[in-house]
């Protein structure tokens, strides 16, 4: 669309990133989120059969405005678009920092718009921007763990949503929007169905129950509701239709839903409708009791409370345990999910929707009684899923199950179930001595710099590609940082002991912390004789900044490919592929940058002296990182001596040593440890950046939303 073109009808999409200006986000986090959003938007458009190059996509600082040609079917935006964008955000959030994660508010509308010299103008555009900023939409996003909260205009709802069954119109609820010059009714998409009453001739006659939705018939056990209906029938306030209507209205206000309950003079049918409505909503039974206690007192309400207690599902696990599980399942696709669900739930269980989530599965299973062993159905489901996923994820899922079974005192019963599954469907198992990784990110936090945020990822087996599992972040004082790192290594050792993996430990550090002597820290929390991590394991340092900025990844990948080709052909890094930097200052940096631009075969940089913290981000290390150099070596404590230079050349270029570069570094550290500090061996101060672009872990994200797609 050009400024000289007349106004034209477009589908309008406006998105805003939740809490974009939060003080917890740094400019780096905002830049990462901004870039990630635009990448996700374009990818989701393509996946929704919409050409992003044919759209007008403009930046809104904390979001974006998209104009889609009016010839595009609006159904794409309510059918494919939400799920495709959600998938892209899941992928982005799976590899991004907690402060850089993205959750979106989105508005959908249609109308005329035109391009001005400095932006897009049109009443319809203004209207869509007002919708995305409504308090109701902000609240809707806060109340759920979805990545996207969607609001659509009244015309968009009536013309597109209602006429596209795949959009699931029952998931939309009406809201009144009063924002500046806007006073209208819009529709917010919610995870709980809102069954809107039929109009005109389709309306049921007074006295009918109106239970016409097949989803409802399949998911509500009417027999289980009967004791509740009988108890409600004894409440004096509910004897007349007027009292029951008031109850429905108050419950709707409490749950913030639009109830689809018609007034009726037939008390039993009317009460059954109300009971069904409450059973359908996760907080419905609670709301029923709380509302009744406001309008009625006495033994009759106590009987209702008891009936609700008897029919309610107990809270099986704390919210943090639920979040921990769904974080593990984030992005995990199990093709047999429906069969597993049916096997665990039984043939009479509520059916799953065609596009379901793990949260949907759990909500259904939590309503069912445990099997004869006493193990809750969701726990059995997790055990079945663990047999279908890669070994490392299976270990984490079973650990989660073990923790829950311990709380329920069902460890013996769970182990029996687990053994039966091994006998019948097998179990995920890595190959012997698999290549395994523990990646630890350390970053200073707080104004004093005395605190560190420690994040970590781990993967036992790479046979299915790089899919690390992210652990829980911890913030620790710098004095206890080494202890926490050692505790993490001990835990990995214990978890993976039976597989005897070849473990590599990598530290993701920013410029400021690249010279931390992490390889010299003890790998045990209480060692009698401290043994350095770098003597026991293959240890490498990696650049946090390079991972965070995609603009550096092209050159990084090219030089990494060159490194692999050189080591395969030469047996080491050829001398001509190593660059030793001797001169600091502006002229030296210019010379270094020019060399990298002229010589794509350069894959290793040797620094003549250790990086200076005061120049972090503007020194020779930063030049090498931005140029994509995968191997950077220096001595942490002093400029290179002739002896050190010889050691480095032998480390990088010795063709007679068949060991991997990281193994050579480990052996150098062992020699230094054996000689002790007095020996002055180069290995004691060796820092090696060894950075593989195929295994990016940051920016990293927090626990995934509960509704991660199944």
Describe the protein's architecture and organization:
The chain is an alpha/beta fold and 710 residues long. It has four domains: 8-189, 2-Layer Sandwich (Alpha-Beta Plaits), CATH 3.30.70.1230; 201-311, no CATH class; 319-419; 435-690, no CATH class. It contains 26 helices and 18 strands. The strands form three sheets. Strands 1, 2, 3, 4, 5, 6, 7 and 8 form an eight-stranded mixed β-sheet that branches. Strands 9, 10, 11, 12, 13 and 14 form a six-stranded mixed β-sheet that branches. Helix 9 (241-255) runs parallel beside helix 10, helix 10 packs across helix 11 and helix 23 runs parallel beside helix 24 (620-627).
Strand content: 15-25%
| Biggest sheet record | 8 strands, mixed
User: By helix and strand content, what is the structural category?
Assistant: alpha/beta
What are the segments in which pLDDT stays under 50 over at least 5 consecutive residues? 193-221, 700-710
Q: How many individual β-strands?
A: 18
Evaluate the radius of gyration: 30 Å
* Number of helical elements: 26
Summarize model confidence as the mean pLDDT: 83
Number of domains: 4
How is the secondary structure organized here?
Elements: E1 8-17, H1 27-47, E2 56-59, E3 63-69, H2 75-78, H3 80-93, E4 104-116, E5 119-121, H4 123-132, H5 135-143, E6 148-153, H6 154-161, E7 172-179, E8 182-189, H7 214-219, H8 222-233, H9 241-255, H10 267-280, H11 284-295, H12 299-311, H13 319-329, H14 337-345, H15 358-366, H16 377-386, H17 391-408, H18 411-425, E9 435-445, E10 451-459, E11 469-470, E12 474-477, H19 481-496, E13 502-509, H20 533-536, E14 538-543, H21 544-548, H22 553-570, E15 578-581, H23 585-598, E16 604-607, H24 620-627, E17 631-635, H25 642-653, H26 661-675, E18 686-690
Parallel strand pairs: 4-6, 9-13, 13-14, 15-16, 16-17
Antiparallel strand pairs: 1-3, 1-4, 2-3, 4-5, 6-8, 7-8, 9-10, 10-11, 10-12, 17-18
Helix pairs in contact: 1-3, 8-10, 8-12, 9-10, 9-11, 10-11, 11-12, 13-17, 14-16, 16-17, 23-24
């Amino acid at each position: 669309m050009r400024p000289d073109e007349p106004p034209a009808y477009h589908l309008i999409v406006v998105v805003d990133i939740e809490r974009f200006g939060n003080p917890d986000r740094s400019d780096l986090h905002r830049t990462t989120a901004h870039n990630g959003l635009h990448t996700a938007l374009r990818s989701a458009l393509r996946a929704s059969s919409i050409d992003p190059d044919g759209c007008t996509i403009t930046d809104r600082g904390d979001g974006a405005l998209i104009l889609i040609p009016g010839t595009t079917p609006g159904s794409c935006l309510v059918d494919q678009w939400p799920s495709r964008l959600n998938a892209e955000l899941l992928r982005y959030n799976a590899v991004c920092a907690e402060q850089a994660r993205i959750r979106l508010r989105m508005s959908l509308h249609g109308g005329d718009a035109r391009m001005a010299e400095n932006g897009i103008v049109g009443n319809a555009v203004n209207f869509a921007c007002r919708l995305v900023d409504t308090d109701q939409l902000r609240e809707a996003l806060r109340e759920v763990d979805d990545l996207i909260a969607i609001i659509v205009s009244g015309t968009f709802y009536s013309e597109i949503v209602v006429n596209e069954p795949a959009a699931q119109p029952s998931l939309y609820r009406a809201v009144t929007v009063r924002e500046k010059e806007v006073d209208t009714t819009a529709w917010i998409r919610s995870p709980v169905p809102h069954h809107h009453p039929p109009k005109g001739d389709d309306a049921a006659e007074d006295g009918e129950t109106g239970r016409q939705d097949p989803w409802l018939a399949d998911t509500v056990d009417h027999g289980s509701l009967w004791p509740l209906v009988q108890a409600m029938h004894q409440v004096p306030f509910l004897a007349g239709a007027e009292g029951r209507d008031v109850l429905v209205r108050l419950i709707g206000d409490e749950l913030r839903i639009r109830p689809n309950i018609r007034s009726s003079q037939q008390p039993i049918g009317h009460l059954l409708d109300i009971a069904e409505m409450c059973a359908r909503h996760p907080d419905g039974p609670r709301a029923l009791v709380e509302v009744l206690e406001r309008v009625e007192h006495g033994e009759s309400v106590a009987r209702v409370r008891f009936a609700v207690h008897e029919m309610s599902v107990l809270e099986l696990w704390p919210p943090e345990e639920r979040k921990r599980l769904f974080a593990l399942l984030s992005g995990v696709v199990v093709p047999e999910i429906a069969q597993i669900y049916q096997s665990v739930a039984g043939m009479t269980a509520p059916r799953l929707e065609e596009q379901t989530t793990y949260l949907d599965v759990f909500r259904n299973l939590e309503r069912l009684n445990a099997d004869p062993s006493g193990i809750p159905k969701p726990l059995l489901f997790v055990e079945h899923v663990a047999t279908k996923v890669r070994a490392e994820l299976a270990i984490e899922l079973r650990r989660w199950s073990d923790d829950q079974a311990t709380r329920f005192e069902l460890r013996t019963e769970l182990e029996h179930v687990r053994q039966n599954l091994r006998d019948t469907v097998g179990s995920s198992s890595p190959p012997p001595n698999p290549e395994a990784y523990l990646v630890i990110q350390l970053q200073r936090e707080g104004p004093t710099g005395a605190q560190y945020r420690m994040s970590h990822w781990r993967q036992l087996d790479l046979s299915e590609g790089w899919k690390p599992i992210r652990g829980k972040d911890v913030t620790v004082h710098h004095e206890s940082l080494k202890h926490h790192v050692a505790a993490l290594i001990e835990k990995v050792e214990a978890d993976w002991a039976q597989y005897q993996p070849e473990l590599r430990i990598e530290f993701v550090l920013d410029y400021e912390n690249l010279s931390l002597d992490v390889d010299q820290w003890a790998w045990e929390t209480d060692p009698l004789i401290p043994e350095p991590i770098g003597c026991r394991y293959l240890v490498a340092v990696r650049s946090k900044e390079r991972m965070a900025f995609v603009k550096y990844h092209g050159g990084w990948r090219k030089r990494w490919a060159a490194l692999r080709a050189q080591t395969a052909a030469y047996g080491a890094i050829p001398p001509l592929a190593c660059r030793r930097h001797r001169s600091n200052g502006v002229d030296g940096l210019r010379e270094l940058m020019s060399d990298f631009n002229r010589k794509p075969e350069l894959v290793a940089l040797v620094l003549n002296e250790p990086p200076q913290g005061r120049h972090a981000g503007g020194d020779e290390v930063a030049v090498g990182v931005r140029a994509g150099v995968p191997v950077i070596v220096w001595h942490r404590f002093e400029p290179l001596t002739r002896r050190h230079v010889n050691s480095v050349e032998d480390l990088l270029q010795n063709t007679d040593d068949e060991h991997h570069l990281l193994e050579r570094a480990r052996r150098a550290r062992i020699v230094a440890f054996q000689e002790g500090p007095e020996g002055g061996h180069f290995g004691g101060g060796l820092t090696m950046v060894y950075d593989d672009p195929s295994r990016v872990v940051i920016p990293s994200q927090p626990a995934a939303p509960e509704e991660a797609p199944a």
